[in-house]
Amino acid sequence: MAFELPDLPYPYDALEPHIDEATMRVHHDAHHKAYVDNANAALAGTEWADRPVEQVLADLELIPEEKRTAVRNNAGGHANHTLFWQIMSPEGGGAPPGGALAEAIEATFGGFEQLKAALIDGGVKRFGSGWSWLVWDGTALAAYSTPNQDSPWLQSDTPLLGIDVWEHAYYLKYQNKRPAYLEAWWNVVNWPEVERRYADASAS
């Protein structure tokens, strides 16, 4: 089955004032849709056309070379944005995560504030477009940034939280103030979803 553009799990204006309605409309309806359409076009007629996007990305080196860049960019964009919508919520932000995820954050980073600082720093210092990630690498948490639409699935890491730092994610509201966007973003993070993803990844 071809990739499909998922519905947003909340109204376009639900993340105001931190992320504005106009940005959400163009980000989801135009940018994410283009990634879906282009990924489907690149994979059409191949054995990969009906496979989960995570598998497509993890096995990218097996995809014919002439299609590989288009798949990396567009299937990556689809995977990244599908996660992005889910790890934000109108009821987001608030207290940092608890339980097993909090313990893992403490063990790896020294605490939530250190994790937050690492992800903001990764986003601020990412030259051009990209993402700042919290991932499960198979043995522990890790934080890093990637360029363009590169996904942690490319290196067999499981993304738990990703912050989009392409200009289309913030420029209508924040213009060139990427650090302000990165600070505001924590007001919408959906911790129960991140905790669920961590539980699933660390148990497998």
Cα shape: globular
> Mean pLDDT across all residues, rounded?
96
N-end to C-end Cα span:
25 Å
Provide the structure class.
Answer: mainly alpha
Our Rg estimate from Cα atoms comes to: 16 Å
List the total number of helices.
Answer: 8
CATH topology of the largest domain: minor pseudopilin epsh fold
* Residue share in β-strands: 5-15%
For the biggest sheet, the summary is: 3 strands, antiparallel
Along the chain, the helix and strand elements come as HHHHHEEEHHH
Task: List the uncertain runs.
Answer: none
CATH class of the largest domain: Alpha Beta
CATH superfamily of the largest domain: Iron/manganese superoxide dismutase, C-terminal domain
Main sheet strand line-up: 2-1-3
From the 3D coordinates, which CATH architecture of the largest domain would you assign?
Answer: 3-Layer(bab) Sandwich
Number of domain modules = 2
The counted number of beta strands is 3
Give the % helix: 40-55%
Describe the structure.
- It contains 8 helices and 3 strands.
- The chain is globular.
- With 204 residues, it is mainly α.
- It has 2 domains: 21-86, Fe,Mn superoxide dismutase (SOD) domain (Helix Hairpins); 99-203, 3-Layer(bab) Sandwich (minor pseudopilin epsh fold).
- Helix 1 (21-43) runs antiparallel to helix 3.
- A hairpin with a 4-residue loop joins strand 1 and strand 2 (141-147).
Explain briefly what this protein structure is.
With 204 residues, the chain is mainly alpha-helical. It is 50% helix and 10% strand.
